[in-house]
Specification:
Elements lengths: L2 H4 L1 H8 L3 H8 L8 H5 L8 H21 L5 E4 L6 H10 L5 E4 L3 H13 L6 E4 L17 E4 L1 H10 L9 E5 L9 H11 L3 E6 L8 H9 L4 E4 L7 E8 L3 H23 L2 E3 L7 H11 L3 H30 L1 H12 L5 H8 L1 H12 L4 H16 L3 E4 L3 H13 L4 E4 L6 H15 L5 E4 L14 E4 L6 H8 L8 E8 L2 H14 L31 E3 L7
Parallel strand pairs: 1-6, 1-7, 2-4, 2-5, 3-4, 5-6, 8-14, 9-15, 10-12, 10-13, 11-12, 13-14
Helix pairs in contact: 5-6, 8-9, 11-13, 11-16, 13-14, 13-15, 14-16, 20-21
Length: 550
């Protein structure tokens, strides 16, 4: 029965029919009877035994959250690929009003709508994003029960008055853990709270019991309740592949490390300390500059600090690129970024003899150890007709890997974010269609595809560039094995930066207590029994040592 044709009232009356009779027979509280509705759900490509095992858990959690939403907003924390979207749709169907389903990416609006249609829900839906002009977003005329949209569109339309939030409306925030700082989720959740609208947050990596940052996130989003559920998900085997350093990579590491340590010592002399737990934005840097510029003498001294900071950032990025990404990525970074920047710092980096030697090594060599390993694994997957997903840190690396694998007879494609045009969306849809049809062997992506993507045919995930947070590692791994068991490979080279990230992400992913801080010690440590000297701190500035370079 289609509720859009028969009317909502009659549909929900039939939905709750015979609930009282069944409750008296089974001696349990009255709960809605979803069995007739579940009988209409269809799951093409998913084994029936998997769906049969999860149906009871999905219904139970949906009823629990529906009762909590009567009082306040709720956050559902469950493992990735556990069926949070299906639970959210069940809750939306059990409410009489409209449901606005917010997702962080434009592509996910269409993908989540496709998932709802595939499982057999006949309620009318609509997908809205920034690609739809403002004048064509007629919220008051739309009659769809479920609307998938990006958070910035919903927030802007609420603030402009084009969308009026009704108390019967339910707002679902998918991937709630991205709501940091000025992300639209925070403002949207606060607007919903003022209007008396309930908010349901969905996330897989949120632990407010252990981390104060997650508790602050829930307070910012005005969500008092947190429901944690453990579902039976497919098994995932994770393997760490550590490749030895070649002679060329060892030489590049030595040269770049000497340049980085030399710059870091100069920063240390300028009283700039390293704090990996604090990441400053561009606005915070500008505020910091204004606060320290009190005289012309300090202006000159601060300009020297800024130049050193820029030099340190470029050298560290080059170090990570050549060792974690490849030779080709370093040459493209030097040609597309450094040579086009008309700055003193970029020119000093390029004219340095050690950096020129690193570039000459990169131009002579194209056989990176990671690429040789990836080529063998991709060939084995092509023989088994199993597509694989490869995560890298930069767009240049994704394009290069896709080109090289295609030239070797392994059809591949690269996807990355930042392109918000209709043409880019059509190209992305065509790429995913080829992947589902078995025309692609390897899909190379940046962090663009690590959250929310439903790729049921992908059974293997390769971390070509190591994830730098345990949240990223968890989301990337769960792109594989969403239906059946999958495998994940952490590929690293035996050098300082890769080993540090591999160790840190493993410790955090296993929910162990991380060390209080990770410091890059410059110079020799104090001797046994000797107290370290205390320097006078002047104009101390914190510098992020290990932040995301993607």
């Amino acid at each position: 029965m289609n509720p859009s044709k028969k009317g909502d009232k009659r549909f929900w009356d039939l939905w709750h029919k015979n609930d009282a009779v069944q409750s008296r027979r089974l001696k349990r509280p009255v709960v809605p009877n979803h069995r007739k509705w579940w009988g209409k759900f269809r799951y093409p490509g998913i084994p029936e035994n998997i769906v049969r095992d999860r149906r009871y858990d999905w219904e139970r959690v949906a009823e629990n959250i529906r009762s909590l939403l009567a009082d306040a907003s709720v956050a559902l924390v469950a493992d990735a690929s556990a069926g949070k979207t299906i639970i959210a749709i069940l809750i939306a169907l059990s409410r009489p009003g409209r449901t606005i389903f917010c997702v962080p990416l434009v592509h996910l609006t269409k993908q989540q709508r496709f998932v709802v249609e595939r499982i057999g829900v006949t309620v009318p839906t609509r997908a809205v994003s920034g690609l739809v002009p403002t004048g064509k977003r007629a919220w008051r005329k739309w009659k769809e029960r479920i609307i998938f949209a990006t958070p910035d569109v919903v927030r802007n339309d609420v603030q402009s008055g084009a969308l009026t939030l009704d108390p019967s409306t339910l707002v679902i925030l998918d991937e709630l853990d991205v709501a940091r700082g000025k992300y639209p989720y925070v403002e949207l959740a606060q607007l919903c709270t003022r209007a008396g609208v309930r908010v349901l947050g969905l996330t897989a990596t949120l632990d407010s019991r252990r981390y104060p940052r997650d508790r602050q996130l829930l307070r910012d989003c005005c969500i008092p309740h947190e429901v944690r559920e453990h579902f039976k998900v497919p098994n995932l085997t994770e393997s760490s592949v550590v490749l030895p350093l070649t002679k060329e990579l060892s030489e590049c590491e030595r040269l770049l490390k000497d340049m980085i340590v030399e710059t870091a010592k100069q920063l240390n002399e300028c009283h700039i300390r390293f704090d990996p737990n604090q990441i400053l934005t561009i606005k915070e840097w500008r505020d910091l500059w204004k606060r320290h510029l009190k005289s012309d003498k300090e202006q000159i001294r601060w300009d020297e600090k800024v130049s050193l900071l820029a030099r340190y950032s470029k050298l560290r990025h080059s170090y990570v690129t050549v060792l974690a990404e490849g030779y080709e990525s370093l040459t493209r970074y030097a040609e597309d970024t450094l040579e086009k920047q008309d700055t003193v710092t970029a020119r000093r980096v390029l004219i340095d003899g050690r950096f020129r030697k690193v570039l000459s090594i990169a131009r002579r060599n194209h056989r990176h150890p990671k690429f040789q390993w990836l080529l063998k694994v991709a060939e084995s997957h092509a023989r088994m007709h199993r597509p694989m997903l490869v995560f890298v840190g930069q767009r240049a690396t994704a394009v290069y890997l896709a080109e090289q694998l295609t030239l070797r007879g392994l059809p591949s494609a690269a996807v990355w974010g930042g392109r918000k045009t209709k043409r880019a969306e059509r190209e992305l849809d065509e790429t995913l269609r080829k992947l589902a049809a078995g025309e692609l062997v390897v899909l190379v992506s940046t962090s663009f595809a690590e959250r929310g993507w439903n790729l049921p045919d992908v059974r293997s995930v390769v971390h070509y560039s190591l994830p730098q947070t345990w949240q990223s590692r968890h989301h990337r791994n769960r792109r594989a094995g969403r239906i059946l068991s999958g495998a994940a490979f952490l590929v690293s080279v035996d050098h300082h930066m890769d080993m540090l990230w591999l160790w840190t992400t493993k410790v955090l992913a296993e929910r162990l207590e991380p060390p209080a801080t990770v410091q890059w010690l410059l110079g020799t440590p104090p001797r046994k029994g000797e107290r370290p000297r205390r320097r006078k701190q002047r104009d101390t500035v914190t510098l992020p040592l290990f932040e995301e370079y993607a």
